[in-house]
Amino acid sequence: MMNPPRISQIGGPTVLIEIGGLRLLTDPTFDPPGEYRLPHVVLRKVAGPALAAKQIGPIDAVLLSHDQHADNLDHSGREFLATAARVFTTRAAASRLGGHVVGLSPWEPVSVTAPDGGELEIVATPARHGPAGIEPLSGDVVGFVLTMKNDQNVRSIYITGDTVWYEGIAEVARRFDVGLVLLFAGSAQTRGPFHLTMDTNDAIEAAHAFPNATIVPVHTDSWAHLTQSAQDLTRAFEALGLAHRLNVIEPGGTWTWRFDADQASASDRSRSPVHAP
Ligand SMILES: [Zn+2]
Prior knowledge:
The chain is α/β, with parallel strands linked by helices. It has one domain: Ribonuclease Z/Hydroxyacylglutathione hydrolase-like (Metallo-beta-lactamase, Chain A, 4-Layer Sandwich), CATH 3.60.15.10. It has helices spanning 75-81, 91-97, 135-138, 167-175, 200-209, 230-239, 259-262, 266-271; strands spanning 6-11, 14-19, 22-26, 34-37, 42-45, 61-63, 87-90, 101-104, 109-113, 119-126, 142-148, 156-159, 178-184, 214-218, 254-256. Helix 5 crosses helix 6. The chain binds zinc ion (ZN). Zinc ion binds next to loops.
């Protein structure tokens, strides 16, 4: 059985995932605080990353939810893409970024071979970056589901990307046995009195849709346009008796996902013994 996956919060949407000997990075952002002029808004970054790009080490694949927003891919993040062995993102982003960047449509799978010969399946998932009809304004976004194909004891990891709760997320819940959700929250507001990433209500919908999953919020810090914090999520989950489902990792923190302890049901154990890592 492989070592338990490790999740390190770098800051904003940037998370290091170590699984099966592979090192993956979500939306790379390493710039210091500053301002970014987008066509419709000026985004203001208020805190730098917990780790600099050069401290991250070699990356087997960047999982880039979209390239068109500076809070998901900033200047240093763009430079970082060239250093990663692989980059997976939307088809639109791949055509803009070029090089070795691979575009995926929702539900399209790719696989990456781990150093130990194991196979990690990566499936792109749909995302809607705001209310119904936002797509022409927001541009395309994808999420990702990660599944180690050679280890039956591990449920999938779902990275939502920038999205609100909607039917597409419910479909991810129907198609995959997810044990860990990296939930892009923060209730971002840049275009009006509506949110573009998950708010507390959306996160609670997701917690119910993925009943076997631990919810790790990301994309809740470092930017002025984020209107809800990880603490807001904690208070909302506590109020609804769901605090045990939420796991907040502070920027700079690393958490080891002890899936063997919290996932294997009694029947799973009898069928396939779980060994300590
Ligand atoms: Zn975005």
